[in-house]
Amino acid sequence: MKQIxxxxxxxxxxxxxxxxxxxxxxxxxEVRRGxxxxxxxxxxxxxxxxxxxLSTMDMDFEGKLQINNIELTGKKPDYLARFRNEHIxxxxxxHFLLPEFTALENVMIPALKLAKFPESxxxxxxxxxxxxxxxxxxxxxxxSKLSGGQQQRVxxxxxxxxxxxxxxxxxxxxNLDSVNSKIVFDTFRKLTQELGQTxxxxxxxxxxxxxxxxxxxxxxxxxx
Amino acid sequence: xxxxxKIAKTHLLAKPKQTLVAMLxxxxxxxxxxxxxxxxxxxxxxxxDLTKIASADIRMYKDxxxxxxxxxxxxxxxxxxxxxxVKPKNESEKIRNALQIADLLRRDPEILGVAPxxxxxxxxxxxxxxxxxxxxxxxxxxxxxxxxLNSKMKEGxxxxxxxxxxxxxxxxxxxxxxxxxxxxxxxxxxPQGITYSMKVVGVFQLGxxxxxxxxxxxxxxxxxxxxxxxxxxxxxxxIKTTNYREARGKAxxxxxxxxxxxxxxxxxxxxxxxxxxxxxxxxYSVSITLLxxxxxxxxxxxxxxxxxxxxDIAILKATGFxxxxxxxIFMTQSLIIGLFGSLMGLVVGYILSLLLxxxxxxxxxxxxxxxxxxxxxPKFYLIGIVFGVATTAVAGWMPARKAGKIDxxxxxxxx
Lengths: 224, 415
Description:
The complex is a heterodimer. Helices cover 36% and strands 27% of the residues of chain A. By secondary structure, chain A is of the alpha/beta class.
């Protein structure tokens, strides 16, 4: 059995606007290292909310969250920002690349922020990541000039740049055609199998979910 | 290069026109500030120089205009005394022991020089012309130390006065009116009716008509003789201090110590100098207004930039940029705009000042200048850049902080 990477204990969350409403009801979840996990459920089931909690972007909840045996509840925003920078990669439905920068620079930015390696080393690593995703030839293009599929792959390369413990996907294929969806899925598959990467992806796409290691289905704020 | 700075730079370069417009706002404000403050300070300095030509830092004299208590007031100080037709007492204007006081004052390290003076009203007679004026009996070497007379001599020399006991150095205006030349003999008539023949040994020009047209310098002993007074008769002590800006405080101390009225140059010329304050107020109020307008421009542009960069901010925050990093990125942009805008403003201000310094300006008889007086004090350039950067920092702070507070989830989920 592989070691546990992420663990929650009794996570509950409320929305207060316009009325107090419990979105998440005492969620207990364990994710193991190298798992490719999909979160599914209808709109309003709380799956996205849960993902943002797990990714430490929203810390306004009751309960406990541990990643890599580090207790994250109650930590300061600056600490969490640093933690996300180092340990969590994001892939969203939309690529969210910085339009003025080239593909390569977009991939480099989180690593430059982390500043663990000199810039030349970061550049080398960023090129490696782009190569893994098969878009090394597009490295010097301004990101706004790339096609949708290419942009999403640059976004994945960006998520990988700091060798994170965890990659979070929020509908990563939601805005892509079937060809590009397949490329993204295959990339994720390859990352988990070959590099032991852990991935949690929220998705509406049943085909996508069906091919992952584990499906967590949510309904009315609970895991089914 | 710091990644925050790199992002800020890229944002600015991505929209060069918008960046330039924001910078020009600051440039205009600072440029105008520099130009105005240079001109106003030039004028202020000029007025100050003018007053300094005529007035010593501190002038000590016996003040006989103070109201005098009557004898009745002295005997019955608590009673209501009515005395009609009180006339001023015939008091001597002499400063007692003036030369000893001068010696004591010269020992003060804050005092550079003391020049005794005795002034008298006179009529100048030369041929048929009779002119009203004044003659100042001075120790010419001390006088030169205080007023730099040597550099203001048009003809003749100071030393000629020392060797000629009845020598007279006359103002240029006076010389013109009397058509007097070096070596001419003038007849001076005092209010007491004494006449005395004096020889012109020099002509000076202070550049101040009210003096050049009426004053002449003679030896102290000559004027004492002219007035029929003893060798200790001195009515004024002119004092030069090491720091004329602090003359007022020094004057008060001197007055308290010696009991004679000591008046500093600012008090003596308060009407002339009042204009300086008004000019300063004008300069700063106009400049601040311009800078506030520029500040609003920056505020708007930054707000717009942040609005259009919501997605970028969201992803930066998601990938580990803290609120302070995002605020830093936008503050950096604001400060770069401020710094470059201010630097350009300094250049514009300097060029405008140079141009203004070429503008012909006729000071009339009173002033001897031919172009606008402009100050190029580096202090104002420093104030300008601090001013410009501070304005942009304040204008940028609110939008930048707002950007730092953006909740990335709201943006990411809201699309």
